[in-house]
Design goal:
- The protein has two domains: 57 residues, no CATH class; 261 residues, Glycoside hydrolase/deacetylase (TIM Barrel), CATH 3.20.20.370.
- The strands form four sheets. Strands 7, 8, 9, 10, 11, 12, 13, 14 and 15 form a nine-stranded parallel sheet that branches.
- The protein is an alpha/beta fold and 397 residues long.
- The chain is globular, with a radius of gyration of 38 Å.
- 30% of the residues lie in helices and 18% in strands.
- The longest helix has 25 residues.
- Helix 3 runs parallel beside helix 10 and helix 9 crosses helix 10.
């Protein structure tokens, strides 16, 4: 039968055929199961539940293309037709609307970069964008033989609004301090711009030097500015305010020419302030056409309050001119301590009436006193504002 019964057991037998290891097969199966479980877990974790934003196609670079489910709104008041953002002083956010899986819209707000791409400045905003404060709004200027003069814009926008210094909007105690005579002294003007807080209003004399340069420096520093126009005082010509002084004896057309020549010296001012002018301010016949022209151009008028016979209020109301009176001359005596006392008195007036306006000249002593007092007044809860926020405005009673 081919079997040697006499051979020792286990001798001369053929080697047994090797079979696949059962243990190895089990290990492979277990690994496959673990991988399947992991894949299923990942699928479950990233499966859309209808609340997250849809992803753009994989072939697109998400850093270059917007999400496909972002609602593309037509240009609004804060967006130009080309999609560029408009500057909006009351908002610091980008707004993005997204459609969720169930069809609802989710609005997401994120901080807006201040130094990214180009920004279009909206001429209709309150105040002027600080980055563009030294540049005039061309819509509020007209070309004349006397230079570029302020006008009300085609949409009704006034230079008084465009160049006004923004304020908090709270009806607390408010004080405006106007430093006048800037541009007459180079060192005094530079010192005022460098040392005074941005809340102080600057008034530039039309007969000053390098006015355009100083205007730009002041505006970049956050200051609201006025233009001082020379008006005839009672003791003229012994007391002469300078060339192109508006006189009661001049024809109306000549006075308007002098006014326009002064207006053309700088831009970006909210209004006009008198330089001297006791006699002129007391003469309704001479004053009325000048006030009317100032109001028509969308400017305010600040009366420094030195003339008890001034007709400013009566005429301003008849011409719908925004106007204000200074409550106090702060540096009739050029002494730091006396000026500080006057500022304290101005504060008492403001606490009694809710607001007050003080006027000073660009003396070193005045600058030092105003700088010191302003810092302390802020800590006492007083808001120092631009003068435009304190005027009597017929359009905003």
């Amino acid at each position: 039968m081919g079997t040697d019964l006499h051979a020792p057991l286990g001798r001369n037998l053929k080697a047994a055929r090797k079979r696949p290891g059962i243990l190895r097969i089990g290990q492979i199966a277990s690994s496959i199961c673990l991988v399947a479980i992991g894949v299923f877990s990942l699928y479950t974790a990233f499966r859309s539940d209808g609340l997250e934003q849809s992803k753009p196609p994989a072939a697109q670079d998400t850093s270059l293309a917007p999400p496909t489910d972002t609602i593309q709104q037509p240009p609004t008041g804060n967006q130009a037709a080309n999609g560029m953002p408009r500057s909006e002083p009351n908002s610091g956010a980008n707004v993005e609307r997204m459609v969720t899986g169930d069809g609802s819209v989710v609005t997401r707000y994120s901080p807006r970069s201040r130094d990214g791409g180009p920004v279009l400045v909206d001429a209709m905003q309150i105040g002027q964008d600080p980055r563009m404060a030294a540049i005039p709004n061309d819509d509020l200027l007209e070309e004349t033989p006397f230079g570029r003069l302020p006008i009300t814009g085609p949409d009704g926008r006034r230079p008084m609004d465009q160049y006004a210094r923004p304020w908090s909007g709270t009806r607390g105690i408010r004080i405006a301090i106007v430093l006048s005579g800037l541009g007459l002294s180079q060192t005094g003007t530079q010192r005022a711009i460098q040392q005074l807080p941005e809340e102080i209003t600057f008034a530039f004399a039309a007969s000053g030097n390098s006015l355009q340069r100083w205007m730009q420096d002041a505006r970049r520093g956050g200051h609201e500015i006025l233009l001082q126009v020379p008006l005839e005082p009672f003791d003229y010509p012994a007391n002469d305010p300078g060339p192109d002084t508006l006189l009661t004896s001049k024809p109306v057309a000549r006075n308007l020419e002098s006014l326009h020549r002064a207006m053309g010296e700088i831009t970006n001012y909210t209004g006009v302030m008198n330089y001297l002018g006791g006699r002129f301010l007391s003469d309704p016949k001479a004053l009325e056409p000048v006030m009317r022209d100032i109001g028509k151009r969308g400017l305010l008028f600040l009366d420094d309050g030195t003339s008890a016979q001034s007709k400013t209020a009566v005429i301003a109301k008849g011409t719908e001119l925004p106007y204000a009176f200074a409550d106090m001359q702060l540096d009739g005596q050029v002494d730091v301590n006396i000026i500080l006392q006057k500022l304290d008195e101005l504060e008492r007036i403001a606490r009694r009436n809710g607001q007050a306006i003080g006027v000073a000249s660009a003396f070193d002593e005045s600058i030092d006193a105003i700088s010191k007092w302003s810092e302390e007044a802020t800590m006492r809860g007083i808001e120092i504002v631009g003068v435009a926020s304190l005027v009597n405005d017929p359009k905003n009673p």
